[in-house]
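Worked Example 4.2. Consider the chain below.
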Amino acid sequence: MDFFMHVINLLVSKWYIALIVGGSLEGLSLPFPSQPLVLYIGYLVNIKSINFALAGAIFAFPYTVASCVPYFIGLKYGKMIGNVSPRYMGYLSKGKEAFNKYGDISVLITRPFALGNYVSYLAGIYRMNMIKYLFFTFLGIFFWATAFLYLGAQLAFQFSMLMNLIINNAKESMLVFFVFFSLVIIVFVLTRKLARSQD
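Applying the procedure from the previous section yields the following structure tokens:
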């Protein structure tokens, strides 16, 4: 119990370090539970009356910098997938076409979801412009982090119940978010195709 209280006290006094470390680990595509951390920091930020946008940027900046590691891994080793087996070359070229078309928006929108950690590799494999990659990564994760910080602050009075819900249902929560996001993309693509076919 003393250890747990020590961790809580450390988070209260050094919340910005927790955001920097959490953002860095998440940006590296490591399996790190940043959602509960950011929600809890939102609760703390509310208590300390700290600016949500500043706290969101404190999380987003190290995330963006750390996400360059999987980007460069994809950039350097992405072609090896095709070299290992020529049958993957068709998939790579189709993926490149799709990524060239929707890469910016996919980097922006997928950041809040588990898939967002792996889109960094795809951005590298398909050689997305680095400046655009950094811009859309920062923007996507900044809005996500700020929204979660705000949500944590608003739900502070029910925080322990919310944390248990997210931790116990992390897979289900991610599945719901992924299905919702997939439906949004499908509707967007179909609407766009329909509009083009009518022109």
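The radius of gyration is 19 Å. The chain is about 85% helix and 0% strand. Compare this with Example 4.1 before moving on.
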